Amino acid sequence: MGSRAAANLPEHIAIVMDGNGRWAKARALPRRLGHRQGAENMRNIIEACLDLGIRYLTLYAFSTENWKRPAAEVDYLMGLPGQFYERERHLLHKHQVRVVIIGDLETVPAATREVIMQMESETTDYRALTVFLAFNYGARAELAMAAERLAKKWQAGEIKKITEADVANALYTGGYPDPDLVIRCGNEMRLSNFLLWQSAYAELYFSQKLWPDFSKRDLVQAVEDFARRGRRFGGIDNISNEPRREER
Ligand code: IPE
Ligand code: IPE
Ligand code: MG
Questions:
Q1: Which of 12, 158, 173, 246 is found 20 to 30 A from 223 (Cα to Cα)?
Q2: Ligand 2 pocket, 61 CB below 6 A?
Q3: Contacts from 144-149 at CB under 8 Å and sequence distance 24+?
Q4: pTM
Q5: Rounded to whole angstroms, what are the CA distances from 86 to 60, 121, 127?
Q6: How far is CA 236 from the centre of its chain?
Q7: Could you tell me if 34 and 20 are in contact, meaning their C-beta atoms sit under 8 angstroms apart?
Q8: Residue 5: exposed, middle, or buried by beta-carbon count in 10 A (0-12, 13-18, 19+)?
Q9: What is the pLDDT of residue 35?
């Protein structure tokens, strides 16, 4: 990609990894093989982010609504963090990738929780790229949790009013930058309870590609598209954030 586009990189990319089931169905395979292929694709996208110099990547792996799926599928999905860790542990250490979980770990099976906590603690000092794995994550549950945290602080007399910064800090993502670019694969145009607060000013990008097919090249395309957009945050255009024009 050209240096001009590189100058306008997103700091934080968040991805709804959707379409695993349809990927499998199109090949007459069980859904779980779509999930396996999807989990393997995480490596390609992590590598692409390292190549591009992206600082934060959030991957939506399991939503608070995904418990509605058949028990066998849920069981398989609960095993994926462990599979990922086993397969990619070397990559995480080699490239200094930190993994941080956002979501409610209390209600996931103990084995899944343990492997996730081990992955977090083993990579806690790394800063080349931070991967937020959204697991048992739901934005509404996150906001309710934040409200409860703030209510307790209020009750304890620690705060007397609640600011936007207080809410942001009470979320799982407290202290980290909001996503600049939210990508949804799988040809669906909705957020499905993903980062509702944090995405207030994110650029949205919808890809028809199913997640297991979403390649490094597709990520670069999304980043190039992002680089051409004009973000105003409610203000008006100025020289520095004018939409970029294609070279003639
Ligand atoms: C995304 O793929 C993975 C999870 C939601 C866990 P899906 O399983 O939703 O795939 P489709 O949407 O059925 O194709
Ligand atoms: C969103 O995909 C959740 C994840 C990718 C983890 P879903 O497949 O669960 O979303 P809906 O049901 O189509 O909205
Ligand atoms: Mg889906």
A1: 173
A2: yes
A3: 145/104, 145/170, 145/172, 146/170, 146/171
A4: 0.94
A5: 19, 15, 20
A6: 29
A7: yes
A8: middle
A9: 98
| 218 Cβ closer than 6 Å to some ligand 2 atom | no
The predicted-structure confidence for 125-158, as pLDDT tens digits, reads as follows: 999 999 999 999 999 999 999 999 999 999 999 9
Q: Which residues of 208-230 are buried (b: 16+ CB within 10 A; e: fewer)?
A: ebbbbbbeeebbeebbbebbeee
pLDDT in tens, 189-231: 999 999 999 999 999 999 999 999 999 999 999 999 999 999 9
CA–CA dist 148, 217 (Å, integer) = 42
Q: What is the pLDDT of residue 213?
A: 98
* Residue 108 CB–ligand 2 contact under 6 Å: no
For 3-227, which CATH class? alpha beta
Residue 63's identity, in one-letter code, is S
Report how far Cα 1 is from the mean position of its chain's Cα atoms: 23
What is the best residue among 68, 192, 193, 206 to mutate for testing ligand 2's pocket, by most ligand atoms within 8 Å of CB?
192
What number does the ligand 2 atom closest to the CA of 16 have? 5
Ligand approaching nearest to the C-alpha of 194: 2
How many whole angstroms from its chain centre is CA 41? 14
Return the ligand 2 atom nearest residue 61 CA: 6
**Residues annotated as catalytic (active site), given as ranges:** 18, 66
CA of 31 to the centre of ligand 1 (A): 9
